[in-house]
Amino acid sequence: MLFPNVPTKTLGGQVFWNTLDRRNGWKLQQNMFTQHFRILDPDNVRQAWGQDEGEMWRTFRMFAGSRNE
Q1: What is the average pLDDT score of the chain?
Q2: In the β-sheet with 45-50, what is the strand arrangement from edge to edge?
Q3: Does position 45 have pLDDT exceeding 80, yes or no?
Q4: CA–CA gap between residue 11 and residue 21 (Å, rounded)
Q5: pTM
């Protein structure tokens, strides 16, 4: 399940975040402590977040414009 999102400017995940994938400037990240996920746009604004890894990957591919998965 994705959680309600208020687009929020971030520092890009330099601390406490593992970047799982980058495409077209978008990032899918996972928090090292809470294990939740977030999607950042090319300006490091959080566009989505949640705990369901499969749903986050699908949403990431939609945002990032991936055509091969």
Answers
A1: 93
A2: 8-9, 45-50, 37-40, 26-31, 17-23
A3: yes
A4: 17
A5: 0.90
